[in-house]
Amino acid sequence: MSSTQKDKILTLNINSFSKEEIMNAALKAAVDLDLPIAVWRIPHQSEIHLVISSKAPRQLEQIDIEDLGTGFVIAPFHLGQLPAHFIDADFSLSFDFDEVVQMQKTQQEENLEKIEQLKARIEQFLDQSIKAKSYHVKPKDSSSSNDDYHQLIEKSVMAIKQGAFDKVVPARTKEIELEEDFHAIDLLLDLCDSYANAFVSFVSLPQIGTWIGATPEVLIEKKKDSFKTIALAGTQRFDPIMPISDTSWTQKEIEEQAMVSRYIINCFKKIRLREFEEAGPKTVKAGNLLHLKTSYSVNTKETNFPELATVMLKLLHPTSAVAGMPKEEAMDFLKEHEGIDREFFSGFLGPVNIDGHTNLFVNLRCMQLLENRARLYAGAGVTSDSQPEKEYQETELKFKTLLNILNKKV
């Protein structure tokens, strides 16, 4: 049977199944064939995208958006010390309402053979109505937790008052047991339904394991001649009874957000970019939380800066919202005192050059899926006015972005 015939049969078969069934079959096929897979939904959109590479992901020490090609990238907090991973979009599916669009870009014979194996395996699992419980698990996993987060906050405040830096963002983890009937695709779709204004993603690679999350924070947005980034900081619980416009913020929260905004403007200054638009700060809702947000946009054609996204990515990551200010001093403190391996938490991830658009987000409100359990990550911005218990409770609120959907009581 020719490749064209197989494509036609799969397209006919695939449209007779639900998106849940197709995604579950695609995930199980990718895991069985040891292939990387990414599934995501852009904020305020209904369309869900899925890509699978016919080969191992490319490992990158730095990101050049213009030269990457089409696919999905996931990068660690310590990019450079650890590589980013790029999933080429050799095989892709898009789900929007009842329509399923299938695309295939690889032309190399070896990769075509792997894609045909993938398609055949997807068809097999669809026919068998198999629901995927499997996902890639990191080959070697070490426990990762802070001994005492309150004490870490106290050390952070003391260092700030001694003039070491102005702000630092220590993180912590929480591990939970997963129910026997846990299915990653079900969680992904529940996150999509619950958090319309978040970037919802599921990334599963043999080399690094599986990450799933719903992040509110844009890092880089590139669309044709436009560039966008945001400053997002300050956190409080969303009260459904109170109008968002009536939200009040403490001086600590206002200053924390202002630091992130100054950091972005300083990055513009480093590359002598003065023509940008600034909007905000304003209060925005992200799941069960409220934040202060300021948006920055640039017309790359008018400024004659087509490579701005790549240049700003190198300058921005990791942002002061996830590391601190000044960056180097804050990062040194975290390396010495934080006590956890962040891995891909507070790194970045997202689709690259998909339909001419690149959308990269800071990997927040996320968790790593392990064998029968999950490790959640959260951090809190610490300034001289921070109180340890309040910052601890902020991380608890951030955990609930996922825990509320998992319906776990921990």
Characterization of this structure:
The protein has 410 residues and is α+β, with helices and mostly antiparallel strands. It has two domains: 3-128, no CATH class; 149-406, Anthranilate synthase, CATH 3.60.120. Helices cover 32% and strands 30% of the residues. The protein is built from ten helices and 20 strands. It has helices at residues 3-14, 19-32, 65-68, 109-128, 149-161, 184-194, 251-270, 308-316, 327-337, 388-406, and strands at residues 37-41, 48-52, 58-60, 71-75, 84-88, 91-96, 99-104, 167-168, 171-177, 199-205, 209-215, 218-223, 226-237, 277-286, 289-299, 324-325, 348-352, 357-362, 366-370, 373-379. Strand 10 and strand 11 (209-215) form a beta hairpin. The model is unreliable at 1-12 (pLDDT under 50).
Which helices and strands appear, and what pairs or packs with what?
Layout: H1 3-14, H2 19-32, E1 37-41, E2 48-52, E3 58-60, H3 65-68, E4 71-75, E5 84-88, E6 91-96, E7 99-104, H4 109-128, H5 149-161, E8 167-168, E9 171-177, H6 184-194, E10 199-205, E11 209-215, E12 218-223, E13 226-237, H7 251-270, E14 277-286, E15 289-299, H8 308-316, E16 324-325, H9 327-337, E17 348-352, E18 357-362, E19 366-370, E20 373-379, H10 388-406
Antiparallel strand pairs: 1-2, 1-10, 2-6, 3-5, 4-5, 4-17, 6-7, 8-16, 9-20, 10-11, 11-19, 12-13, 12-18, 13-15, 14-15, 17-18, 19-20
Helix pairs in contact: 1-4, 2-4, 5-10
Summarize the structure.
This protein has 410 residues and is of the alpha+beta class. The chain has ten helices and 20 strands.
